[in-house]
Write a structure and sequence with these properties.
- By secondary structure, the protein is of the alpha+beta class.
- The chain folds into three domains: 2-105, Roll (Ubiquitin-like (UB roll)), CATH 3.10.20; 108-234, Orthogonal Bundle (Fumarate Reductase Iron-sulfur Protein, Chain B, domain 2), CATH 1.10.1060; 241-319, no CATH class.
- Helix content is 41%, strand content 11%.
- The chain contains 13 helices and seven strands.
- It has helices at 33-43, 78-83, 108-116, 139-142, 156-160, 162-166, 173-183, 191-200, 221-234, 241-256, 261-269, 274-289, 304-319, and strands at residues 2-9, 19-26, 63-66, 69-72, 88-92, 99-101, 104-105.
- The strands form two sheets. The chain has a five-stranded mixed sheet. The chain has a two-stranded antiparallel sheet with strand order 6-7.
- Strand 6 and strand 7 (104-105) form a beta hairpin.
- The longest helix is centred in the last third of the chain and has 16 residues, at 241-256.
- The protein binds iron/sulfur cluster.
- Iron/sulfur cluster is lined by residues 151-157, 173-174, 177, 215-217, 219, 221.
Length: 320
């Protein structure tokens, strides 16, 4: 099968800016993108730099951006891109990390966030069994973290996350999925401390783009983040803007069947907080002038009872 690879090349010590080089290939039908890169290195240009190791989607080394989406290239067939109507494969390094050479990036920011969530079990020393005994947990107890355990630290979701790209403070999907793995482990004794720290690391900063759901190992960090938020509210960690926003949002929709945006802002600021309300006023006026303030002011949906019924049903299910 014939294909064309357009690869971004860049050696910071030599080049003033990245440039694209074109390679023509004719490989077997099942060839992966990694097979294509190896063929280029073997027979066309041995100076091309990229990471790879196991070739079986286990080591997580060969992540790079293919036609706009980050992928493990050992797991992605050239044919699958061609089938998507991409006869040319544009290959660039992962985003949100500095390029060291060609397709190799400096993953320090990824590892920093990962270390920040303390990805190791911290049990209560009084409950740890003696060295010759196992600390047993049942499959049911580990069920909430089952998907998290599949993470191979490939950074695909870190590279494709829109928030990570603009906010270096945000821990990012893989670190939060790993945090979820320990928060939900019944042996860990630092649940509350972990959750409080996660709020500082950006637990509420995820913007729900859901790019991380394209995880090659089906980890589903978006679900892990949503679950961490739920657990943190249940643990009483509500003195932060994210939890308050979520609670007021739910209350508003439950009350009227529709979000009352104006009241939401007022309640988040504090209804009796006159200084805060005055401080918000200029933004309210700007929104009004731009036509972004709902007018006439908030109205209930035609049948709010129906929405309340849904809320009651979901609430009852949560309690069961
Ligand atoms: S969650 Fe998935 S995409 Fe993200 S680092 Fe782990 S394996 Fe890779």
């Amino acid at each position: 099968m014939k294909s064309t690879f357009l690869i971004q090349r860049y050696v910071p010590e030599q080049d003033s800016a990245p440039h694209v080089e074109r390679y023509e290939l004719d490989l077997w039908d099942e060839a992966t993108i990694l097979d294509g890169l190896l063929a280029i290195k073997d027979s066309q240009d041995d100076s091309l730099a990229f990471r790879r190791a196991c070739r079986h989607a286990i080591c997580g080394s060969c992540s790079m951006v293919v036609n706009g989406y980050t992928k493990l290239v050992c797991k992605t067939a050239i044919a699958s891109e061609v089938k998507r109507g991409r006869s040319e494969l544009k290959i660039t390094p992962m985003r949100s990390m500095k390029v060291l050479k060609d397709l190799i990036v400096d993953m320090s920011p990824f590892w920093k966030h990962f270390r920040d969530v303390e990805p190791w079990l911290q049990p209560d020393p009084a409950k740890v069994p003696p060295p010759n005994e196992e600390y047993r947990v049942t499959p049911q107890q580990l069920a909430p973290s089952r998907k998290d355990l599949n993470c191979i630290l490939c950074a695909v979701c870190f590279s494709d996350c829109g928030v990570t790209e603009v906010d270096s403070h945000f821990a990012g999907p893989p670190a939060l999925a790993k945090a979820h793995r320990f928060v939900t482990d019944p042996r860990d004794s630092k649940r509350k401390e972990r959750l409080e720290k996660l709020v500082d690391l950006g637990l509420w900063d995820c913007a729900h783009a859901y790019n991380c759901m394209e995880c090659p190992k089906h980890v589903d960090p978006a679900h892990a983040i949503a679950d961490l938020r739920r657990i943190s509210i249940e643990a009483g960690i509500t003195n932060n803007i994210g939890a308050k926003h979520s609670q007021q949002f739910t209350k508003s929709v439950g009350r009227n069947g529709r979000l009352d945006e104006t009241r939401l802002v007022m309640e988040l600021t504090g209804i009796t907080n006159v200084t805060g309300q005055i401080r918000n006023a200029p933004q309210g006026v700007r929104m009004l002038l731009k036509g972004k303030l709902p007018l006439p002011m908030h109205q209930k949906v035609d049948n709010p009872k129906e929405v309340r019924r849904i809320f009651e049903t979901v609430g009852t299910k949560d309690e069961q």
